[in-house]
Amino acid sequence: MYSGSRKTEMKAIYPGSFDPITFGHIDIVKRATRVFDEIIVVVMMNPHKKYMFSLEERLSIVRRSLKGLGSIDVDSHEGLLVDYVRASSSRIVIRGLRAISDFEMELQLAHANRRLLHDFESMFFMTDTKYSFISSSIVKEIISFGGDVSEWVPDFVVKAFKKKLH
Ligand code: ADP
């Protein structure tokens, strides 16, 4: 019988490279805070991947970008996401979808993760259409050729980019 009150806090994990975080990622976090009581944003570290920003820089940019958005924790993890999830009190992992092309890869990842951890649950949020074509890679490409990216990343990220490129 429905007791009228929720007994557990709903917590979700949002993993990504965030190299760097964009307004698209921020949009996903905002949407997720309307559904979950707490979001843990996990900046992933893969030693085989080449990043523009160091883990410390990515963490600091993520923290600053998400300040004031609600109950958000920022953490980092090196290795398999399922290992992080296994050690966490949540089994829900948020991913963002921009287009059908994201779906194929995300579906594959979701199935693989569930195979590795049977109660791993993937949840997808669709970004606002105005962010549906941006990715950290496109932003990096545009700025490296001197283009304006202020529409897609916060001001202080543009500054961090400029510092890195000069
Ligand atoms: P990863 O290396 O795990 O793909 P990203 O930082 O590129 O890390 O992305 C993390 C998550 O955010 C993924 O689910 C990705 O689809 C989603 N994402 C990336 N860019 C956007 C965007 N513009 N709008 C919505 N979701 C996005």
Description:
With 166 residues, the chain is an alpha/beta fold. It has one domain: HUPs (Rossmann fold), CATH 3.40.50.620. It is 40% helix and 20% strand. It has helices spanning 23-33, 55-65, 81-87, 100-116, 136-144, 155-165; strands at residues 11-16, 38-45, 72-78, 92-97, 121-126. Helix 2 links the parallel strand 2 (38-45) and strand 3. It is globular and about 45 Å long. The structure holds adenosine-5'-diphosphate. Adenosine-5'-diphosphate (ADP) is lined by residues 16-18, 22, 24-25, 28, 95-96, 98, 102, 127, 131, 134-136.
Number of domains: 1
- Which radius of gyration do the C-alpha atoms yield? 16 Å
Strand content: 15-25%
Level of helix content? Answer: 25-40%
Question: Could you give a short account of the major beta sheet?
Answer: 3 strands, parallel
Q: List the total number of helices.
A: 6
Biggest sheet strand order reads 1-2-3
Name of the CATH architecture: 3-Layer(aba) Sandwich
Oligomeric state of the chains present here:
single chain
